[in-house]
Amino acid sequence: MILPRTGIGVDIHAFAPEDSPAPLWLAGLFWEGERGLSGHSDGDAVAHAAADALFSAAGVGDLGTHFGTDRPEYKGASGVTLLVEAARIVRAAGFEIGNVAVQFVGNRPIFSPRRQEAEAVLSAAAGAPVSVSATTSDKLGFPGRGEGITAIATALVIQNAPASAPER
């Protein structure tokens, strides 16, 4: 019997130092006028958590395994590019993607006005439904102090049925 598999992914990024600004890319979108995140790639915690959840569900490693800092070709890469590649890797490992759900935790940016736009971009990248919700941490912890962003994701994948042997 083939059962669905679930995975979880967490990604955390600090905001870039004020003396070394970066653009904010979050949930596959550029956020004009917002302080960007530090990271080897673009720091898109939402897209990264989604990719990590897919890897976890399929049991094929994690974000560091596939896109780690030892991989110079991914320096500055967009989170959408990483999510596209993660979905390809998961499918190549013999899985179909059911869905991905991501919870963004942070005070900024104000997410709800762009939720549908973000979900459309991430769903296209994953080739499967991606939903994104957002919350604050009521001024607790580093997200509450405005020091960074956390994203937590879950993914559901289903292993493809193995090809049956030809009958004799």
Question: Would you spell out the secondary-structure blueprint of this structure?
Answer:
Elements: E1 4-14, E2 23-26, E3 29-35, H1 45-58, H2 63-67, H3 79-92, E4 95-105, H4 115-126, E5 130-135, H5 141-144, E6 148-159
Parallel strand pairs: 4-5
Antiparallel strand pairs: 1-6, 2-3, 4-6
Tag the structure with descriptive keywords.
two-stranded antiparallel sheet, 6 strands, 29% helix, globular, alpha+beta, 168 residues, four-stranded mixed β-sheet
Structural summary, described in words:
This protein is an alpha+beta fold. Helices cover 29% and strands 30% of the residues. The strands form 2 sheets. A 4-stranded mixed β-sheet has the order 1-6-4-5. The chain has a two-stranded antiparallel ribbon with strand order 2-3. The protein starts with a strand and ends in a 9-residue tail after the last strand. 39% of the residues are buried. The mean pLDDT is 91.
